[in-house]
Amino acid sequence: MLNLKAIAHQTQQAVACGHRVFQIHRFAKTDRDHCLRILHWAEIPDGASVLDIGSGVGAVADYWREVRPDLSISLVNLSHAQLTYSAQPSCCGDMEHLPYQDQSVDMATFCFSLGHADQMRALQEAARVVRPGGAVFIYDMVRLAGDDAAMHEVAYTVHPRGYIDQCMRRAGFTLDWYCEPHDTGAYGRSVLGEAFASVFHGTIPAMWRGVKP
User: What gap in Å lies between CA 121 and CA 87, rounded to an integer?
Assistant: First the structure.
């Protein structure tokens, strides 16, 4: 279970050190360009309403809105302390019990957050709030080897690709595409040092986009 007091303290320290995008991989040289690369992959339609589930401090949404003011992005996060860092509309809530009405958004996104929840339940909730014809976008990891023992401290789980594929299908999403973007690991090593290799051993970044019929 997540320790919300610890998260509040760690978030304050991270932001003070200039860290606002709480993702261990980088697909571009700067946080901004990294987030815009993810935006490109997400393929969000013009004028869409987007629910950023497990949003952190809202940095991803802030960068997205900077270049896509047509988007309406709302944040959902279990940590009220993290939500105070963003000006985007937000709601403090659990991704397994989203405080939003059925079919109320065009797209749901999980950017390095899905592993904090029961993935099946979180994707079922995403399917509930997404309108027919809408989509879900997931940026997370897949496990190729090893286990999650080193991630227990941050209450995160990583599964093989097939498990997330199955969860998406059972939730009611049709897989649109899947990819495994390359990351050198340089950023992760710069932040975590030697711990990066041990904590993230056997995992690689992965992305899914699914459509709700």
Answer: 28
List residues bridging with 203 in a β-sheet: 143
Pairing relationship of beta strands 49-53 and 72-77 according to DSSP bridges: parallel
Report the alpha-carbon distance of residue 160 to residue 164 in Å, rounded.
Answer: 7
Residue 202 region by backbone torsions, left for phi larger than 0, else alpha for psi between -120 and 50, else beta = left
Confidence of residue 6 (pLDDT cuts 50, 70, 90): confident
Encoded tokens for 2: 């997540």
pLDDT, tens digit (0-9, with 9 covering 90-100), for 128-158 = 999 999 999 999 999 999 999 999 878 899 9
- Residue 13 lies in domain: 4-211
Contacts of 182 (CB under 8 A, 6+ apart): 27
The CATH number covering residue 8 comes to 3.40.50.150
Q: Which of 72, 76, 83, 139 is nearest to 106 (CA)?
A: 72
